[in-house]
Design a protein that fits this description.
The complex is a heterodimer of chains A (355) and B (452). Chain A is an alpha/beta fold. Chain A has a single domain, classed as Thiamin diphosphate (ThDP)-binding fold, Pyr/PP domains (Rossmann fold, 3-Layer(aba) Sandwich). Chain A contains 12 helices and 8 strands. Chain A has a 6-stranded parallel beta sheet, with helices on both faces. A two-stranded antiparallel ribbon of chain A has the order 5-6. In chain A, α9 links the parallel β7 and β8. Chain B has 3 domains: 82 residues, OB fold (Dihydrolipoamide Acetyltransferase, E2P) (Beta Barrel); 184 residues, Rossmann fold (3-Layer(aba) Sandwich), CATH 3.40.50; 127 residues, Rossmann fold (3-Layer(aba) Sandwich). Chain B is globular and about 80 Å long. Chain B has 452 residues and is an alpha/beta fold. In chain B, the strands form 5 sheets. Chain B has a 7-stranded mixed beta sheet, with helices on both faces. In chain B, β4 and β5 form a beta hairpin. Chain B contains 13 helices and 22 strands. The longest helix of chain B is centred in the N-terminal third of the chain and has 15 residues. Helices cover 27% and strands 23% of the residues of chain B. Classes of the chains: A alpha/beta (355), B alpha/beta (452). At the A-B interface, β2, α6 and α7 of A face α3, α4 and α5 of B.
Chain lengths: 355, 452
């Protein structure tokens, strides 16, 4: 039989419970970010850029111009845009797994060099030697682009360690999926990040499927935001299909982390419209399920409707759409027409130094 | 009946220790569990407990005595009421107390083998005697003083002062922000180390042994080794993963393995496996400064050995360069890490038989100094590889392939390898001894390639 706690202990337990739930409660109390019209237009533009870019990448894959694995971000745009719009690009770092195109675009990296990397060209951001899953931009503080499920979580804790060690005020945002959330190394990283109060926001992008395995078939606890409780990491359960909810939640999480309190675990509930990768026929879910998400929860359509409701002229929105189409067309042309890497590149950058 | 108290073995590799302090005196009554003495090993000071009841009859080894062999009788306990027993017939060979000039313990004595000076050390440099353990610690301390980005992280590296005392004193000097104890989560902290290196720091990640690094090998290979290439040279990962590697002593199969060949297989890594103190220090300093990820393989059995160490302000050695440890004209023995000591020992035996063996220490396993191997082969025309590790897909196989592909015309005999037996390392003392390479086996292989 459980011992009856003393009144003092009762209060302490309640306090601890509150600390773990407090961010969620703050979020529930004020769900949506009060974006100005210009901000909302920017979010819309960034989401449309990701959507159109990914659609084009899918096309180029079908034409055989992109090889290997290619994981599209279509449907999840509000997550990267909402979260990263709250970061300080001068000092905050971002790291993610292999579904990385959207996070790069949301961090302002030139779509041309991303697309050229997808087609394996010398002008690609990794000189054509990384491919879709392995892209980095140290200048933009985007640290990959990692192909091994879950590896980016301890690596992100390492980036956060470096922020703290240097005292540069930066925070690391480390993304991973609901599949990676079951990796052991994630919890090793949670433990150390909480123990050392590292400035990191752990972001589970729960898109419902770990490749073909639905969350409930692979996870004993399907509420991922609760999984930090064992390490005293407060969790936040966030609607990842509304860019303003995402942004509002990001601000609460970042305030907490920047104040030196250690990590936050955010679960962003989202959905990918496409298969896990280009080679996935997605037979594990019904067409109706996907259609329901597209019709009723699409983050881009929602933002557009909101802009119109605010009285933004439809022409302004159409101008954005047009501009994005031309940026994406330009990046695809660039990626198709750039030369492949020189053969000498085969041997470069294996080691930095010569011995 | 008198009970002899013997110098205890307090670690798997301890052969002798210092009787630091007696906490009892002759005539004291003791019971099981009482602390009798403090004994210092090269790793730690340990308390020595009584397991029997009785009266301390005679203390045979005074406190302060260094170099007391494991198993030597240090005191005698008599039963209560029993008179102090007569002194043991032949007092065991305990060295003089510390007030006398401290004798250098056998295991710590500099190797007697005639050594060829390292051309990287300027002629006329003053030399001091240092253990490999101290040399490694000094390398880290010097680099931490030089570069504030350097920090040390691992299990028991800080407050415990290092599981094998390699990080002794670092916490005192550099504090807990730069000397960091981790939980026992190799996968996690290897990833944190690699991430911190990507973020611009210079982490030195200690594995308590490389056997545990198998939990973390994904980050060593997939995260650290490949990122520079995959990023088109944008993102570096200047991390050092270090710790003891290879067979220790009687710790069984899961704790006894040489990972040199595993890591040396991976492009993008630098792999270093030094033998003596000068190389341990000079190469660890080079590894910490290096822009590439380094796997630095030490050997627990060599930590306590003493060697000459140059007294230089900044002793940094080139990575990727082998070193001739002993010159010879008749045959080349190629080795690395603990195998070098055995190769030198074999060379001594062979010299007495009229075979002059050249001993080449690879020091770095990747990039491998092929040129040094081939140059020595061209000189001696015969070659044996000695490796404390399994034979298949080993450094030995690689050296043999190099000799075959690029040195065939210089070979007067097939290249032979002397490796550990191709079995998981057994625990039983006799089987363990049989499984691991030794100098007689190396000498026998040399005689074979010399047709003697």
């Amino acid at each position: 039989m459980a011992k009856k706690p003393t009144a003092a202990k009762d209060a302490a337990v309640a306090d601890e419970g509150f600390a773990l739930r407090s961010l969620q409660e703050a979020h529930a109390a004020n769900k949506r970010y009060a974006a100005s019209d210009d901000e909302l237009l920017t979010f819309y533009e960034q989401m449309v850029l990701i959507r159109r870019f990914e659609e084009r990448a899918g096309q180029l894959y079908g034409l055989g111009l992109i090889g290997g694995f290619c994981h599209l971000y279509i449907g999840q745009e509000a997550v990267a845009v909402g979260l990263q719009s709250a970061l300080d690009g001068e000092k905050d770092s971002v790291i993610t797994g292999y579904r990385d195109h959207g996070h790069m675009l949301a961090y302002g990296i030139d779509p041309k060099v991303i697309m050229a990397e997808l087609t394996g060209r010398a002008a690609g951001i990794s000189k054509g030697k990384g491919g879709s899953m392995h892209m980095f931009s140290v200048d933009h503080k985007f640290y990959g682009g990692h192909g091994i499920v879950g590896a980016q979580v301890p690596l992100g804790a390492g980036l956060a360690f470096a922020h703290k060690y240097r005292g540069d005020g930066g925070v690391c945002m480390a993304y991973f999926g609901d599949g990676a959330a079951n990796q052991g190394q994630v919890y090793e990283a949670f433990n150390m990040a909480a123990l050392w109060k590292l400035p990191i926001v752990f972001v589970v992008e729960n898109n419902g499927y770990a490749m073909g395995t639905a969350v409930k078939r692979g996870s004993a606890e399907t509420e991922f935001y609760r999984r930090g409780t064992a390490f005293r990491i407060p969790g936040m359960d966030v609607n990842g299909m509304d860019v303003l909810e995402v942004r509002a939640a990001a601000e609460i999480a970042l305030d907490y982390v920047r104040a030196g309190n250690g990590p936050v675990l955010m679960e962003l509930n989202t959905y990918r419209y496409r298969g896990h990768s280009m080679s996935d026929p997605a037979k594990y879910r019904s067409r109706e399920e996907v259609q329901e998400m597209r019709d009723k929860h699409d983050p881009i359509e929602a933002a557009k409707a909101e802009l119109l409701a605010r009285g933004i002229a439809e022409d302004r929105i159409k101008d954005i759409d047009k501009r994005i189409r031309s940026i994406v067309a330009e990046s695809a042309d660039f990626a198709e027409n750039s030369p492949e890497p020189e053969m000498t590149e085969l041997y470069t950058d294996v080691l930095v130094e010569s011995y | 009946m008198a009970i002899e108290l013997k110098m205890p073995a307090l670690s798997p590799t301890m052969e002798e220790g210092t009787l630091a302090k007696w906490l009892v005196k002759e005539g004291d009554t003791v019971k099981s569990g009482d602390i009798l003495a403090e004994i210092e090993t090269d790793k730690a000071t340990m308390e020595f407990e009584a397991v029997d009841e009785g009266v301390i009859g005679q203390i045979l080894v005074p406190e302060g005595t260094e170099g007391v062999k494991v198993g030597a009788v240090i005191a005698v306990i008599g039963e209560e009421g029993e008179a102090a027993p007569a002194p043991a017939p032949s007092a065991p060979a305990a060295a003089a107390p510390a007030e006398a000039p401290a004798p250098v313990a056998a295991a710590e004595r500099p190797a007697p083998t005639p050594r060829k000076a390292d051309p990287a050390i300027p002629a006329g440099t003053n030399m001091k005697v240092s253990t490999v353990r101290e040399a490694l610690r000094d390398a880290m301390a010097e680099e931490m003083r030089r570069d504030s980005r350097v920090f040390v992280m691992g299990e028991e590296v800080a407050e415990y002062q290092g599981a094998y005392k390699v990080t002794q004193g670092l916490l005192d000097e550099f504090g807990p922000t730069r000397v960091i104890d981790t939980p026992i989560t190799e996968y996690g902290f290897a990833g944190i180390g690699a991430g911190a290196a990507m973020g611009g720091l210079r982490p030195v990640i200690e594995f308590m042994t490389f056997n545990f690094a198998m939990q973390a090998i994904d980050h060593i290979i997939n995260s650290a080794a490949k990122t520079n290439y995959m990023s088109g040279g944008q993102m570096r990962c200047p991390v050092v993963f270090r710790g003891p590697n290879g067979a220790a002593s009687r710790v069984g199969a899961q704790h006894s393995q040489n990972y040199g060949p595993w890591y040396a297989n991976v492009p993008g890594l630098v792999v270093i496996a030094p033998y003596d103190a000068a190389d341990a220090k000079g190469l660890l300093k080079a590894a910490i400064r290096c822009e590439d990820p380094v796997v630095f393989l030490e050997n627990e059995l060599v930590y306590g050995r003493s060697f000459e160490l140059p007294e230089l302000d900044d002793h940094v050695l080139p990575i990727g360069k082998a070193r001739i440890m002993r010159e010879g004209r008749d045959v080349t023995i190629v080795s690395y890490s603990i195998g070098v000591g055995l190769a030198l020992e074999a060379a001594e035996t062979l010299a007495a038989e009229g075979i002059e063996a050249e001993v080449l220490d690879l020091r770095t396993l990747r990039p491998l100094d092929r040129e040094a191997v081939l140059t020595s082969l061209a000189k001696t025309n015969r070659l044996v590889v000695a490796e404390e590790g399994w034979p298949q897909c080993s450094i030995s196989s690689e050296i043999m392939a190099i000799c075959m592909e690029e040195g065939f015309d210089h070979l007067d005999a097939p290249v032979l390898r002397v490796c550990d037996e191709d079995v998981p390392l057994p625990y039983a003392a006799n089987l363990e001894k049989a499984a691991i390479i030794d100098a007689p086996r190396i000498a026998a292989a040399v005689r074979k390639v010399c047709y003697r």
